[in-house]
Amino acid sequence: MSRRGSVVFAVAALLAAGSASAREVVPFDAASAGSIVISVSQRKLYLVNGDGTAIRYPVAVGKPGKQWFGTVRIDGKYVAPAWSPPSDVKRDNPRLPNLIAGGSPHNPMGAAAMTLAGGQYAIHGTNRPSSIGTWASYGCIRMYNQDVVDLYQRVDVGTSVTMMH
Hints:
Elements: H1 3-16, E1 24-27, E2 36-39, E3 44-48, E4 53-62, E5 70-79, H2 87-92, E6 112-116, E7 122-124, E8 135-137, E9 141-143, H3 145-154, E10 160-164
Parallel strand pairs: 2-10, 4-8, 7-9
Antiparallel strand pairs: 1-4, 2-3, 3-4, 4-9, 5-6, 5-10, 6-7
């Protein structure tokens, strides 16, 4: 099986795996149906259902000094994306390669990514699940791979994403 075929098979297995126990439906009516709200202080991402509830996912958020706040939109969706470290990441970690192929166990983007308009940020899976629930990134939102695959299926390009304290 080719590397790309292996990646597609792995993503399909994640899709078939069903719900992650960390994901839950909670009361939430503070935003429009279909939008995403990320609470940095809680380290939670909410996908608003519109019926007074949201699906709440645990996430890793930006380290202090690497956080951003405001509202943007999802401008791209990618399965098993390759990753090129942004300049500030490369500066802090000069030994990183210029490109890590999608599907590589060393790729920090995980199973899927949704890029955010106006910057170098994304909501993505992770190769470091132990980082979920912490302040770990350079501004991206990390999710468990099974959760990012679930979210990926539920949202479209153009979905509103609000990052709040």
